[in-house]
Design a protein that fits this description.
The chain is mainly β and 173 residues long. The protein has a domain at 2-83. Helices cover 7% and strands 20% of the residues. The chain contains 1 helix and 7 strands; from the N terminus they run βββββββα. The longest helix has 12 residues, at 145-156.
Length: 173
């Protein structure tokens, strides 16, 4: 199986040549692989309809209607689509192509298998002070006599800006 590109047509397109017979056994709703998406094997396309030459007015030379996961419909010629190798239970990807090589190098960054924030060095950890119980009392601490006197003095000397003003929501009459 080879992938060729036709640059004479507009727009240029890719197509398969020397295809084995097992890649041409199409069934309804089977997973297919267009030549344009050969480098992206994880894309998912399914066969909607196959048209032979002269069978449909929009496909005079024959072709395929293909659906993607999002519901988009694509049209391809008869030599542009094959059955996906994963649909044929082939675990390996195409390795018989002569004019296309797939780069299978992995770029390993960091430590393999570790996720999240890395552990800190024990010398950089904060040393927390030892907890000393405060006597078991909750809530606000009681005010001293001086602070109580200051607050009472402020309440007495409070000047209202508008003494006739009533507080709260007005009543409905």
């Amino acid at each position: 199986m080879k992938i060729n590109e036709n640059n004479e047509a507009f727009p240029p397109y890719k197509y398969f040549t020397d295809v084995e017979e097992k890649f041409l056994n199409f069934t309804p709703n089977c997973r297919v692989l267009p030549a344009r998406y050969f480098n992206e094997p994880n894309t998912f396309f399914s066969l909607k309809q196959k048209y032979e030459p002269g069978e449909h007015k929009n496909f005079p030379k024959g072709g395929f209607e293909i659906c993607d996961v999002n519901g988009g419909i694509y049209n391809f010629g008869l030599n542009e689509v094959v059955v996906h190798p994963f649909h044929l239970n082939m675990n390996k990807y195409f390795s018989t192509t002569l004019n296309l090589s797939i780069n299978k190098e992995k770029i390993i960054t960091g430590v393999k298998g570790k996720r999240g924030r890395p552990k800190k060095d024990p010398s950089q950890l904060k040393i927390l002070p030892v907890y000393v119980p405060a006597g078991g009392k909750r809530g606000r601490k009681p005010l001293s006599e001086e602070e109580k006197a200051k607050r009472n003095l402020l309440k007495v000397n409070k000047v209202l800006t508008n003494p006739e003003r009533k507080r709260g929501r007005p009543r409905k009459s």
